Amino acid sequence: MTGSGHAIVIGGSVAGMCAAQALRGRFDRVTILEQDRLPQGAEGRRGTPQAWHNHFLLDVGREAAETLFPGFTDLLLARGGARLDPGYDAAACFATGWMPRARTSTSTLFASRPMLEATMRQLLLREPGVTFREGVRVVGLLSDGAGAQTSVTGVSYLESGSPAGGELRADLVVDAAGRGSQGGNWMRQLGYEVDELTLDAKVSYSSRWYQLPDEPISWWKWMMVLPDSDPRAAQSHQYLCIVFPIEGNRIIAMMASWGLPMPSDAESFERLARQTRSKEFGRVLDAAQPLSGVHQTRSTRNIWRRFDRLPSPPRGFVAVGDAVGAFNPIYGQGMSSAAVSGLILHRLAERIDPVAAEFPAEFFAEQARFLKRPWTLAITRDRGYAHARGTAAIIDGPHKTLLRRINWPAFQFFAEAVWQDSAVDLHFNRLINVRESLPGFLTNPRVLGGLGLYGAKKLLRLTRVPPTVPAELPPPETDFSAMRGLVVSSRTGVLR
Ligand SMILES: Cc1cc2nc3c(=O)[nH]c(=O)nc-3n(C[C@H](O)[C@H](O)[C@H](O)COP(=O)(O)OP(=O)(O)OC[C@H]3O[C@@H](n4cnc5c(N)ncnc54)[C@H](O)[C@@H]3O)c2cc1C
Predict the structure, then answer these.
(1) Does residue 424 line the site of ligand 1, with CB under 6 A?
(2) Closest residue CA from atom 15 of ligand 1
(3) Is residue 14 part of a domain?
(4) What Gene3D superfamilies does this protein map onto (predicted)?
(5) Residue-wise pLDDT tens digits, 148-163
(6) Domain-ending residue, one of 248, 265, 297
């Protein structure tokens, strides 16, 4: 397809690059305006401070990224990324202890966030039609017309670190400026009020990067220890702990919590890491060499800017990625949602001229149908926390207490039920991969039947799920794949 005209994308991170790639060919020029100067390789930068923290790329996001950037997965793997099975390659300690190890029907891609971004950037710039302008901070939208006839016609910008600036005209402007985007304010200046749904469960992350020794230190490739579900447990037992492998035989060790103070200096990070629910976390850090200081973030609020609710959004403007829906990152949905939004943009632009008046409303509606899934998944658990605040918070009371009490045990129950029943397994993985909604999952007759049957078997002690191993013990290596229900192997893609 040969296009005409000019599109501007504000922000050159994951969402911005996916959007630019989606529009390549629909416009003869796509310009990404990025406030940062971009590194040559896989290095962090100021505009994406979250890059110090672990970034899971769900299978749904990997597939969307692969569709937009053919060769993405192989290039990332060639650069030291890993595609791992969350059941077989992981040591996972849930509410009652270490889960039995077995293959599942899904996989997750592991690499550092800077590597992921650098890989995408390399593929984006392989072909002409998309250019970056670095060190350019967008400060406003240009527009024509008024009321229902309003069109966004470009942006005004400042050169980073200088009072100099200018204006740049475009037929379509895409806001991909991340969770701190000013898109809602810019809309207000044009006379549009964008509803903003929020829920802040006060999640904070503390992460530190380490070099592993040459000799493997464990059978598992990544590790996750969920918080102790007993609210009376020691604070450090209520941390979520993750060991996340990245390229270069390195790991990101991360501790997170819902509402607790988290370590921000090396001394307290190292000390508290050794007081967490499982000794395995501290053991790994003992064997590894720190490569960085401790990076802490509280920038984890769930936000959904409802551009889709504008009765008649202005022509020539859409928004993607965290600028629209930013989720509590613990659920690992952000980059995948950004990539899926890129695909939605691409497919819609093949059907409807992206500069047509109806394009923004159609795009926002389709994007919202998708975003409802990650949003619901993220807020359902977060709403149970007594300290959670925001427009989507629920009032204190029995409903909230129940949500809080059952969320980790319910997760454990689902994780066990998938063992028993391959249909529940497939639906559960579709749920985690935001291919299926939470209400859809919970009302699916096949899933309900499977969960009910598993519950009954559990009561009668007739399940074939091996018992969990207490968190105090080392994670067991035994492979129980042969005992698990018939599943699609994530390695081979065939039914076993
Ligand atoms: C702690 C943490 C952990 C996370 N873990 C995961 C995970 O495990 N899995 C996952 O999928 N997602 C995760 N995420 C979310 C993920 O980082 C984002 O969803 C994803 O990067 C998509 O973001 P984006 O491109 O919309 O915005 P960002 O990555 O935030 O990028 C915004 C870009 O816009 C630029 N910019 C901003 N304002 C302007 C302006 N005015 N003019 C020009 N440029 C501008 C910035 O410099 C930046 O490059 C995590 C987030 C956090 C905070």
Answers:
(1) no
(2) 334
(3) yes
(4) FAD/NAD(P)-binding domain
(5) 899 999 999 999 878 8
(6) 297
